[in-house]
Write a structure and sequence with these properties.
Layout (H helix, E strand, L loop, with lengths): L2 H25 L4 H8 L3 H13 L3 E6 L7 E6 L1 H4 L7 H15 L1 H22 L6 H14 L4 E5 L5 E5 L5 H6 L2 H14 L1 E7 L8 E7 L1
Antiparallel strand pairs: 1-2, 3-4, 4-6, 5-6
Helix pairs in contact: 1-3, 2-3, 5-6, 6-9
């Protein structure tokens, strides 16, 4: 095998590996058969890739009993796997927030969050111009948040409410340092959608994603 062939083989392997990591990030835990189906390959091929990723510490398997027969094996991201998805300038952001808090106090930090909230609110309101239905508004919000790195999506639920999810938080380190960011974002969603917004899953509380139930006010 030539060096070029080996290089191409490694590129393909890396591409498949990154796609598997993305699937686990956006879908949550998966069996190899389901992952293979989503990738357009076999379950065994996906399993082999998962085993390689597990050796790198990026994924891990867990067994789930499903009644009679052998337990089913599900794959999920490890903390290192989640860390492959960037947290925008996390270390610098945390240092700056801590510096503001220690030097200027919590009130200055609250003022910073409020100012950011107002800017974000105005930006999102402009993006909503012309959107009439909740579906249109949610799709626009989804597009904005996805561009900002949140891997957002939404769907209508059986009871007529809407589920808005964010599979990644690019400001997670900042939000962990000051959870006012999370409160401000929920308030912005409620304002621009003109709806009731309840967070039902929270990455900072150990969930895989942040999820919000949206209802007309």
């Amino acid at each position: 095998m030539s060096s070029n062939d080996l290089e191409n083989k490694n590129d393909v392997r890396q591409s498949v590996a990154e796609r598997l990591l993305m699937l686990l990030k956006t879908h949550g835990e998966l069996q190899a058969s389901d992952a293979g189906h989503l990738l357009g390959t076999t379950g065994e091929a996906a399993r082999q890739q998962f085993v390689k990723l597990a050796k790198e510490g990026l994924v891990e398997a867990k067994s789930v009993s499903q009644g009679v027969g052998r337990p089913a094996q599900f794959w999920q991201l490890t903390a290192a796997g989640h860390a492959r998805f960037p947290d925008a300038h996390a270390d610098l952001t945390v240092q700056l927030l801590q510096l503001i808090r220690t030097s200027l106090g919590d009130s200055a930090l609250d003022q910073l969050i409020t100012s950011r909230e107002k800017i974000t609110q105005e930006h999102y309101r402009q993006a909503m111009l012309g959107a009439v239905s909740m579906e249109d508004k949610l799709q626009r919000l989804t597009d904005i948040r996805t561009r900002e790195g949140y891997m957002a999506d939404w769907k209508m639920q059986e009871d007529g409410s809407y589920l808005f999810v964010e599979n990644h938080c690019p400001i997670c380190a900042a939000a962990a340092t000051c959870q006012g960011f999370c409160r401000a974002e929920r308030d912005v969603f409620s304002d621009v959608l003109n709806a009731s917004v309840e967070r039902t899953e929270h990455i900072l509380q150990g969930a895989r994603r942040c999820a919000y139930v949206i209802k007309y006010q």
